[in-house]
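Input structure tokens:
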């Protein structure tokens, strides 16, 4: 088949070449015959030979119809994004006005995906044949893939406007004006601007967004021209709020614009025409004086004008108050603890923070706590809107939490409430984000589309991987046809220009673009970069891999490495300790690298202190992979390593070293050893020497719950009654009763708790209130310090309450001086130094090592418990040996 096919096509090419068949002799049927020839040709190898033959023929006969068509179709069928030969062919027939063939060839290209050149030529063909409806359909497809096209979008808008399809006309006019702004064509933007003001005057956010784009691409002066025209529209409609807001935008660009300054005074006078003091406040704020900073003057005026009867205010010392009277220059305010307080207007403006009637602090002061709590829990959306609007229409999750916890919601209630809140903030179109701070939320006057919301997030996010995730969400939830998409997509395609020196951003941009282009071939940015070209320029693949934070891209990266890098197994082995994922081990085992995996696992077992998280991951998955168990040093050594690691993490937590990570590892080890009962199951089947060795190891660890230690010892004694643990009976009695304390130390703890709740917490709340009054919480050190102290106080209160609830008050009359126990004073002979040492055994609340007052729960105190006079004691704590003889036991004078 291969030789016959090549021979036939070679003959056809020669006949075409020598007979020089004219264009007019070609018909659609000729191309259909070529289709059948290709289809019946058989295997891929034959087709590849045909492609090479045609390409070679085109070197000498660049306008060969047959060679251009066959090579073009075969390239598309192989998903090679190269349609150049078919485009040449289309141009040949369009130049000769063979529109039916042009249409046929365009459709053949489009069978393999949208193509802007093919669509444009197809539309031209329909236009020449007078098929206007078909042309419109093609135009609508074209603008979705050609992001530079503007005039066709404008024509479509005009077409639908003429058809009285206002909704579609507005949509296309918006697309057109955005693209004109992108291309810096201000005259075209200015032409469409009044039309959009006429058709959708209430979409103020759209106009603001567009003027931002004009500012960036064309200039502030041009943006001001547009805003002035928009202002006139709202002024004529007497919409003073929007008119004032637009003037503020203009004055932000042109603070010295005296005409706009006069206009904002006029708008204020109209908005507050009912207010008797409006002219006086314009004068006081120097709003009409050119020397006064316009923005400060506006803020001053708005603060003065907000002083009205029944409005609420906040004072950093007196809290919330309500204005009950204003007479001339005097303001009378009812504060909660300072009724009828009078102050001058000037002092009030400087000392008080104005609060709207819907301010959350007003609700806190005027509603009963239970009533407000019910409102907050039942209507999450209302609560979010109220809090966000209360603080200049801008708040992040931390701010929202500080308003609710612990004054209204408990920490536990906040967890479930905040999950619902985050969902609403992400999906509810009433909420948006600040353009420059993605984690700060705003309430929209008009609902925002998910499309705009995602785009705003993208612009506000500073991190590469945050932007990447937003784009992927955008593609899934919106569409690549959105006018916002090209700008977002271009952010990543720009990275591919640096393919000669790839970092994690270049690599991930490639993976992202490749992922999107595989679904939408027409989006190919035309940068001919392959993964193997990138990876060969990476000097340290594992180091680069650790910088990729997106989990899906991590997996995709490793899949590509496996395909394109012959040394992939070594890379996988090096990456695994930092990327604890089954897929890595599964891939290595599947490709028969079991010995290499075993070597790695042995290294991790031997160096568990350096590979802490990897060591724990292997322990948790040891039953799933036989190779882990085969490479292990034995169950006893594994458990000893785990206990030792538990001890290390406990000590590092106490010394405040890498606390967060150590707590996580500590919890995993506790679960493995005690919750999953790995240690207990091993001990119960071990010999006595091993049991004693294991118990001595966990006895030395301060971070292990004493109740767990006692429980294990108790169970061991049930099986091995002849094994003696120091003070076990006393310890069991202690654990059953809870923390033993003296009456004096309990009273001291209660006083400490009361002082924190009644003095420190209120004082700290006042400090936070003062800090809030200073404004701009993002850069407010006093506010941050106050919130940190609030968190610390909450933790301390919770801990004290728990300890007080669980403690057991010791009765001094029950002191047992027959053995060392709680409440005894003891004299020991140190058998190594022959010196006398005196200690008092009490609890952790009374413990004071410098005064030789030892806690019965401390390792040293625990080792002494239950010993009698003349008894010899030998024990080891933290690798230090102790050898004592008990000389005397008496009741302590401290109880």
């Amino acid at each position: 088949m291969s030789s016959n096919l090549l021979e036939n096509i070679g003959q056809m090419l020669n006949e075409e070449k020598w007979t020089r068949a004219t264009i007019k002799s070609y018909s659609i049927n000729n191309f259909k015959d070529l289709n059948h020839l290709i289809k019946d040709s058989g295997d891929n190898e034959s087709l590849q030979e045909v492609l090479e033959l045609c390409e070679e023929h085109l070197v000498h006969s660049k306008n060969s119809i047959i060679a251009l068509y066959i090579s073009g179709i075969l390239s598309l069928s192989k998903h090679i994004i190269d349609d150049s030969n078919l485009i040449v062919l289309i141009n040949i027939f369009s130049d000769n006005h063979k529109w039916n063939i042009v249409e046929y060839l365009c459709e053949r290209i489009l069978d393999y995906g949208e193509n802007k050149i093919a669509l444009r030529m197809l539309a031209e063909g329909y236009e020449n044949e007078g098929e206007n409806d078909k042309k419109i359909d093609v135009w609508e497809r074209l603008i979705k893939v050609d992001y530079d096209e503007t005039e066709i979008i404008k024509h479509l808008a005009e077409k639908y406007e003429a058809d009285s399809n206002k909704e579609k006309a507005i949509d296309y006019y918006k697309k057109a004006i955005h693209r004109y702004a992108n291309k810096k064509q201000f005259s075209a933007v200015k032409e469409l601007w009044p039309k959009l003001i006429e058709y959708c005057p209430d979409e103020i956010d759209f106009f603001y967004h567009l003027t931002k784009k004009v500012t960036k691409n064309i200039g502030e002066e041009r943006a001001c021209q547009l805003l002035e025209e928009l202002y006139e529209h709202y002024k004529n409609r007497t919409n003073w709020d929007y008119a004032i807001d637009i003037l503020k935008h203009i004055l932000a660009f042109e603070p010295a614009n005296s005409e706009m300054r006069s206009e904002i005074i006029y708008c204020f006078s109209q908005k507050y025409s009912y207010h008797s003091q409006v002219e006086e406040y314009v004068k006081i704020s120097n709003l009409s004086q050119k020397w006064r900073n316009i923005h400060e003057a506006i803020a001053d005026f708005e603060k003065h004008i907000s002083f009205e009867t029944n409005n609420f205010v906040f004072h950093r010392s007196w809290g919330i108050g309500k204005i009950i009277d204003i007479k001339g220059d005097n303001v009378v305010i009812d504060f909660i603890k300072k009724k009828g307080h009078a102050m001058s207007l000037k002092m009030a403006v400087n000392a008080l923070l104005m609060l709207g009637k819907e301010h959350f602090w007003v609700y806190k002061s005027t509603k009963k706590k239970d009533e407000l709590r019910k409102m907050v829990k039942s209507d999450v959306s209302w609560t979010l809107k109220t809090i966000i609007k209360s603080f200049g229409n801008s708040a992040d999750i931390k701010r929202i939490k500080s308003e609710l916890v612990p004054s209204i919601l408990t920490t536990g209630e906040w967890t479930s409430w905040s999950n619902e809140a985050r969902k609403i903030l992400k999906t509810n179109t009433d909420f948006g984000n600040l353009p420059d701070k993605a984690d700060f939320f705003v309430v929209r006057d008009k609902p925002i589309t998910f499309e705009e919301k995602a785009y705003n997030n993208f612009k506000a996010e500073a991190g590469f991987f945050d932007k990447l995730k937003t784009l992927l969400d955008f593609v899934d939830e919106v569409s690549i046809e959105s006018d916002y998409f090209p700008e977002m997509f271009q952010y990543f395609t720009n990275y591919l220009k640096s393919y000669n020196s790839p970092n994690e951003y270049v690599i991930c941009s490639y993976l992202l673009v490749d992922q999107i282009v595989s679904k939408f071939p027409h989006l190919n940015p035309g940068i001919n970069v392959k993964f193997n070209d990138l990876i060969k320029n990476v000097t340290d693949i594992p180091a680069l891999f650790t910088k990729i934070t997106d989990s899906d891209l991590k997996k995709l990266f490793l899949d590509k490495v496996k395909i394109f890098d012959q040394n992939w197994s070594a890379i996988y082995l090096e990456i695994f300790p930092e990327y604890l994922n089954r897929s890595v081990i599964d891939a290595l085992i599947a490709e028969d690298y079991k010995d290499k995996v075993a070597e790695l696992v042995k290294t991790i077992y031997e160096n568990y202190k350096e590979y802490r998280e990897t060591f724990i991951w292997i322990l948790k998955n040891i039953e799933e992979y036989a190779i882990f168990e085969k490479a292990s040093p034995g169950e006893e050594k594994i458990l000893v390593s785990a206990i030792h690691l538990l001890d290390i993490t406990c000590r590092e937590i106490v010394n405040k070293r890498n606390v967060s990570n150590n707590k996580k590892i500590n919890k995993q080890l506790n679960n493995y050893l005690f919750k999953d009962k790995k240690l207990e199951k091993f001990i119960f089947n071990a010999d006595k020497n091993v049991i004693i060795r294991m118990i001595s190891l966990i006895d030395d660890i301060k971070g292990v719950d004493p109740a767990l230690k006692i429980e294990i010892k108790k169970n061991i004694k049930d099986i091995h009654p002849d094994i003696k643990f120091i003070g076990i009976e006393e310890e069991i009695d202690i654990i059953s009763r809870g923390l033993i304390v003296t009456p004096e130390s309990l009273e001291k703890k209660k006083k400490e708790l009361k002082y924190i709740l009644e003095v420190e917490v209120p004082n700290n709340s006042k400090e936070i209130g003062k800090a809030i009054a200073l404004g701009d919480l993002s850069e407010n050190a006093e506010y941050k310090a106050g919130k940190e102290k609030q968190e610390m106080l909450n933790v301390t209160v919770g801990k004290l309450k728990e300890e007080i609830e669980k403690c057991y008050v010791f009765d001094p009359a029950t002191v047992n001086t027959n053995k060392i126990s709680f409440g005894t004073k003891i004299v020991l002979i140190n058998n190594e130094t022959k010196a006398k040492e005196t200690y008092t055994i009490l609890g952790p609340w009374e413990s004071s090592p410098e005064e030789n007052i030892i806690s019965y729960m401390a390792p040293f105190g625990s080792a002494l418990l239950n010993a009698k006079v003349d008894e010899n004691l030998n024990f080891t704590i933290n690798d230090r040996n102790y050898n004592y003889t008990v000389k005397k036991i008496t009741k302590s004078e401290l109880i």
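The two ends are 106 Å apart (CA to CA). Residues 727-732 have pLDDT under 50 and may be disordered.
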